[in-house]
Design brief:
By secondary structure, this protein is mainly α. The chain is built from seven helices and no strands. The radius of gyration is 23 Å and the shape is globular. The relative contact order is 0.11.
Length: 249
């Protein structure tokens, strides 16, 4: 569970930070092995880079490489944070006297970081190649011509649905937990709940008593239920639209 929770949390953050990763990649490749003043600066600063990429490549380009970025975050942070959390839960970070050991913590953190970085490195390379791809007028660095899926492929809808399933589960699981408990709580003779006054009260009581992760109980089951549902819904929706447009031309 430590690995799953850590990986999903990193994926949720990645959806929002990936545009910054695209900008960072482009700015770091700009002027590669060229003396200052001898090359055209397509990206003057972070804000100019956002504007330029959105204007020339399109707003969707700010999320280039999202699929490998999510996989990278899930693997790297899932392994890194999950391994460290497991070591902490098993008591490996404490001495025989029960005192927290900074040396053991540093060693566990370093080992977990090395494992995560080693396994995630090939995926990070693919992510970098995709994020560097740009139209010729603002291209920087070597331009690899990777294409994960062919245009109009059903795999595009499938991948998009998998990503959206992660975002939905991260956003909705606390409310799902609260609603499940509200529906299942005992009631008095008038049908009034005896444990929770409403959804906000259920969320607050759960967070106070069981901690933040208490609101994410059953998240794995939620994804394996909601993930396929979202994937199939978007997949069928996309395919029906394509069939409809084909026969109405």
């Amino acid at each position: 569970m430590e690995f799953l929770m850590s990986g999903l949390a990193a994926c949720g953050a990645c959806v929002f930070t990936n545009p910054l990763e695209v900008v960072k990649t482009r700015m770091q490749l700009q002027g590669e092995l060229k003396a200052p003043g001898t090359y055209q600066r397509h990206y003057r600063n972070v804000f100019h880079a956002f504007f330029t990429i959105g204007k020339v490549d399109g707003l969707a380009a700010l999320q280039k490489g999202l699929a490998p970025a999510l996989l990278y975050q899930f693997l790297m942070n899932g392994i890194r944070l999950g391994t460290y959390g497991l070591a902490e839960a098993r008591g490996y970070l404490r001495t025989d006297e029960g005192v927290h050991s900074p040396v053991r913590s540093a060693a566990a953190g370093a080992l977990a970081g090395v494992m995560g970085a080693y396994l995630g490195s090939p995926i990070y390379m693919v992510k970098t190649h995709l994020q560097a791809q740009a139209k010729a007028e603002i291209a920087v660095g070597h331009q690899y011509k990777h294409q994960i899926f062919p245009p109009q492929s059903w795999k595009v809808a499938l991948a998009a649905a998998m990503v959206s399933g992660i975002a939905i589960v991260l956003a909705m699981t606390p409310f799902d937990v609260a609603s499940t408990r509200l529906y299942n709580q005992p009631t008095d003779t008038h049908g009034k709940g005896l444990m929770y006054r409403g959804i906000l009260d259920a969320l607050l009581q759960t967070a106070r008593t069981e901690g933040f992760f208490g609101m994410y109980k059953g998240i794995g089951a939620s994804y394996f239920r909601l993930g396929p549902h979202t994937i199939l819904s978007l997949f069928f929706w996309d395919q029906l639209r394509m069939i409809y447009s084909t026969y109405t031309k």
